[in-house]
Amino acid sequence: MRFAVHGSAGSVRRRGAVGVAVVAALLGGATGCGSEAEAETPPKTPAEAVARAAERTTEVASLRYRVTGTLPEHGKMRVEAAMTARPTAMRMDVTGLGASEGEPMDLRFADGVLYAEGDPAAIGAPADKEWISVGPAVWGRGGAENNTYRVLPTALEASPLAQSTLLTGAKKVRKVGTGTVDGSGTTHYRGTVTWNSLRDAQTAARDKATRELRTTSLDQFMMLDIEETLTMDLWVDDDGRAKRYRLRGETEALKDGRMVDTGPLDLTVTLLDFDRPVTVETPPAEDTVDLAERVDGAGEG
Q1: In 3D, which of 66, 60, 55, 80 has the Cα closest to residue 9?
Q2: In whole angstroms, what is the distance from residue 228 CA to residue 257 CA?
Q3: Most buried in the list 14, 111, 148, 162, measured by CB within 10 Å?
Q4: Domain boundaries along the sequence of the chain
């Protein structure tokens, strides 16, 4: 099935058993008018610039993006992806996660189903199948429980548009300098974020729209499993949107009834090709096997 949209995105999650391993993306809307942006007063402080970037970036309707870095319990990885918003759709190639090793693994999401290219025979599926499907699923919106059996690492379940808002929860943001990212001039900001600082920012929000953005940021922070403090670098382009961000911090997770260290997170996301057409082709039904039927069925047996 071919799924073509000119702007969309979505969300995913559930605690389960199988780890194919992969990445994410999200939100949506319409981009703002250029003439209005030119007439606006420039932000007076780094905090104002970061807040404005959060608003403008979450209005993006579609984009291509790249993810590189190190994930706890997975190691180094690289993702090339594209996404749209309303209706949600994405496609991505992930290198370095799970069984993909040096070969990119293909993941796609459309119509509430997540598809992962892999080895269905490993879960007892027929050898002629090439894809695993999981659903009904959501993708990119945060920590929602759904039937995805943790196919995606939690740090990669979020939309890059949503993750880019995290710095709005910093107690203090400073300007680091300027530079060029993917050919675009940018201003570089940095700050540290904690659960408490994000909660305080949410409480201090003066209007509904800002409160919703801060709530999204808090949800994204929880998905990263950060132990205490997240350090975030944000590069904002000349249009006032996030162009790149880097997330760094130590992580922890609940295992055997107690919290244990799971290693460092160091993730860099570059946002590319805003608001251009994105097409997602889902695999034919005859080439897929339903993960829920295999895993839940085995448990019942």
Answers
A1: 60
A2: 19
A3: 148
A4: 2-300
Which of 104, 91, 96 has the alpha carbon at shortest distance from 10?
A: 91
- pLDDT value at residue 144: 57
CATH of domain 2-300: 2.50.20.20
SS3 114: strand
Residue 136 preceded by cis peptide, ω within 30: yes
Kind of pairing, strands 278-281 and 242-255?
unpaired
Q: Are the CB atoms for 104 and 115 separated by under 8 Å?
A: no
Residue 109 and residue 87 in contact, taking contact as beta carbons nearer than 8 Å: no
Closest CA to 221 of 241, 190, 255, 194: 194
| Residues in the chain, total | 301
DSSP for 69-92 reads EEETTTEEEEEEEEEETTTTEEEE
| Cα 176 off chain centre by | 25
Question: Which token pair is 93?
Answer: 């190639």
SS3 180: strand
> Rounded CA gap, 290 and 195, in Å?
37
Q: What is the pLDDT of residue 117?
A: 86
Give the CA radius of gyration of the chain.
Answer: 19
Nearby residues of 186 by Cβ (< 8 Å), 6 or more positions away:
178, 179, 180, 235, 236, 237, 238, 243, 244
